[in-house]
């Protein structure tokens, strides 16, 4: 057993955990929070709720927004502070610095917003679990793919252990979600999607209700209902699956969440989960090449060159 542990640590020392894989994941998670703050004034997302007269609720709460409790002018100023921080995270500047700030902004949003989709809570947990990786990341930009100088053995061990914990956490999240659904009769009998479609708060809008009514009111409604359960089970099982299957599972999982985004309006939640799934289903020591984007930019440069000539 000790020999296996030694071999694992030796393998970690030869690999690089600080790649653009986790950089892309944290940028997408930050982008979701950024969009939420950009398009929503504090008066819409921080307001009194049932049994809570102050906004945001700050009892036993260390949220940044508690500095502006019951003051929308101050809350709006704090919103812009968070927007600046999130922009720095999205562009990938100094993970060692912005990693902690990103977690605190995510925690503050999760603690202060009147939300119902659960995305902010997932972001707060994930940015916290990412701290050991960001704090040991020596790069100026998290998009950088340049070779690192020095061995950095301790930092690599810390980062890989954190990544392992993150994968377990994501698997548990989907396992718990599946088990919770199976305890509800509408998921077992295959009619849950029908009830979600009719739900007043996050259900289908008028367009999608009219478009999907013949389907969701038919026996075929069991397909998306049980299909959701099946995909979640597959995502959980990916914890034990060979890496060669990860990419296909990632595509299926992200596709499922984007359907949620379009049909149910869960844009921020779906973006956050997409970022988390990239981290879960992409080897952290690999490098994303962004081949299509590079080719597109290169072609544009060539066209500009031809015009100037």
UniProtKB/TrEMBL annotation:
The chain crosses the membrane at residues 77-93, 113-136, 157-176, 220-241, 248-281. InterPro entries: HTTM-like, Sporulation_SdpB, Sporulation_signal_mat. It comes from the Bacteria. It is found in: Endomembrane system. Residues 14-285 form the HTTM-like domain. Keywords: Membrane, Transmembrane, Transmembrane helix. GO terms for cellular component: endomembrane system. It is a multi-pass membrane protein. SMART domains: HTTM. This is HTTM-like domain-containing protein.
